[in-house]
Amino acid sequence: MDTQVTTATTTEQPDTTTTARRTSSFLRFAIALQTLTIFLQAVSAGLLLTAHYGETLHGIGARVMYAASMLYVLAAVLAWKPGGGPVRPVWQATGFLVLASVQVVLGIAHVPSVHLPLGVAMFGLSVLALARR
Asked: CA 83 → CA 17, 27, 57, 65, 73, distances in Å?
């Protein structure tokens, strides 16, 4: 009597909930980083009025805040496309990047009457986005 032994092979697929959780955590981190950098921009704006190094600090902070906004877009795309998440965070992140671009232009043009209120609005919107995550 011949006995036949068959082995079952399984293909391991990544756990979709783990992937979704990881991309969601990255998205939450990106929003938190953006919120923190916007807050630090408000602090460095105050230093513009009181310290000689305030302008330098605010300029460096602007670049960091812009990079954080780009990271937010990347995190939103990664949470949406491969993770199968909603597209809404991508639009929100893109909106923040547009607002950050407007902030840079207004800051370079020295238009504080729009630059400051827009910065406050961006901080509030960023806190709101963080609270939703």
From this structure: 9, 12, 37, 26, 15
Q: How far is residue 66's CA from residue 128's CA, in Å, rounded to a whole number?
A: 19
87 DSSP 8-state letter? S
Exposure of 119 by Cβ count < 10 A (0-12 exposed, 13-18 middle, 19+ buried)?
buried
The model's pTM = 0.80
| pLDDT tens-digit series, residues 23-37 | 788 999 999 999 999
Please report where in the chains the tokens 């910065």 appear, as a residue: 119
Q: CA 21 → CA 16, 79, 80, 127, distances in Å?
A: 8, 9, 12, 21
Between helix 88-108 and helix 16-50 the angle, nearest 10°, is 20
Residue tagged 């969601």 (tokens): 24
Cβ pair 23, 133 in contact under 8 A: no
Highest-confidence range of 21-25, 50-54, 125-129, by mean pLDDT? Answer: 125-129
Integer-rounded Cα Rg, in Å, for the chain is: 22
